[in-house]
Amino acid sequence: MAQLWGGRFTKETDQLVYNFNASITFDRRFYREDIEGSMAHVKMLSSAGILTGEEKDRILEGLQGILADVENGVLEITPEYEDIHSFVEANLISRIGDAGKKLHTGRSRNDQVALDMKLYTRKEVTELKGLVKELLQVLHGLMKEHVDTYMPGFTHLQKAQPITLAHHLGAYMEMFKRDYGRLCDIYQRMNTCPLGSGALAGTTYPLDREMTAGLLGFEGPTLNSMDSVSDRDYLIELLGALSTMMMHLSRFSEEIIIWNSNEYRFVELDDAYSTGSSIMPQKKNPDIAELVRGKTGRVYGALMQLLTTMKGLPLAYNKDMQEDKELTFDAIDTTKGCLALFTGMLRTMAVNRDVMEASAKKGFTNATDAADYLVNKGVPFRDAHGIVGQLVLYCLERNIALDDMTMEEFQKISPVFAEDIYEAISLETCVEKRVTIGAPGRTAMEKVIAVNEAYLETLE
């Protein structure tokens, strides 16, 4: 058992206890962050006169060698080490001797693991931003392509009013723009360096925490050593943001599953993002969308678990906090995988424009516009509502759309109707006359698309 402690103990830790306490099986993915943090720490110790130049050079060379050997497979991270910190330090001492024992001067595993987790999370937030940006770009392209693709808009999963596919996709564009913004906020708030906080009360060594923070790309050092080692707010924020993002992906997946069904046929998923049945040869299942929908609960669970872990912890560090890692790693991996696959599925999805338009016509989505037509002719809205209700009932009994009615049929229900009703209730008119910003009309949509174009150019 390779441990960084033990002088105060007179007998070996029970193996079962050791295994339960150890974190090497999951914090091994911190090896790069741990080594990079140690290298910055060593440079600062040398600058502060705590290490000699020779000691600094030997330690840095040893750390660089460990990093290279881990990455090329020469050096394996094994369970004989309690955690990634003991792995790095033990191998360093083995390679360079007593100089390696000075690496830990002025720091604790508490501020060390806080640093590793921040460095790792910061890198993952950057990667997540890249994946969300790619999804936004695909959505933007689809919006530009489908400004004139008419479809029914829904409330309560019932056809309500005609819109365009660009308008529908634009709702998700706004959701994922907010998701991107949340990731930016999290990055900014978490970008302070905890190294140098020690176990909880700082250190008597003359550390230059500003230098360490600068070397590692942080805006500056954290300002309270107790908070530094016990803060997991940034992880809770991240898991909250990922949960919201997964909720958006899940809602979108649900719609794609419905649209892909035999009854709707609004879209057809590419073969590469579908699977078949082991018994029913005709099936083409939207498994990627279903898995994204299913994995959402997994990310929610991580958020609830960390909130529950943290809710009763006194200051400062407690071993409970070790439970932050596996669930965060899993939530990040899950969300990244879902973003990448969902974006690919969306990019390759075929849209059945004619089916969407026919569905909008058959669903009486222009009924509100027929009522507005009557109001513009002087009919009180409540009366107009009743008249159009009669029209809908008439059409349902005959399995036709409002557009299919003859002028004689219209005027039997209300003599106010004239030939201009056909233009008033056409899908094109119903959509295009809605020109307020945020509405589905082409004029409004082109303004929004231009705003999104400019927005995408600002993304990192």
Can you walk me through this structure?
The chain is mostly helical. It has three domains: about 15-105, Fumarase C, Chain B, domain 1 (Orthogonal Bundle); about 110-190 and about 215-360, Fumarase/aspartase (Central domain) (Fumarase C, Chain A, domain 2); about 365-425, Fumarase/aspartase (C-terminal domain) (Ribonucleotide Reductase Protein R1, domain 1), CATH 1.10.40.30. It has 19 helices and four strands. Helix 6 (about 110-145) runs parallel beside helix 12 (about 325-350).
Question: What's the short story on this structure?
Answer:
The chain is mainly alpha-helical.
Unreliable residue runs: none
- Tell me the series of helices and strands, N- to C-terminal: HHHHHHEEHHHHEHHEHHHHHHH
What global shape is seen?
elongated
Assembly type of the shown chains?
single chain
Helix content: 55-70%
State the CATH superfamily name of the largest domain: Fumarase/aspartase (Central domain)
Fraction of residues in β-strands: under 5%
Strand elements, count: 4
The description of the largest β-sheet is: 2 strands, antiparallel
Name of the level-1 CATH class of the largest domain: Mainly Alpha
Instruction: Report, as a whole number of angstroms, the end-to-end distance.
Output: 44 Å
CATH topology of the largest domain: Fumarase C, Chain A, domain 2
Number of helices: 19
Please tell me the CATH architecture of the largest domain by its name.
Answer: Up-down Bundle
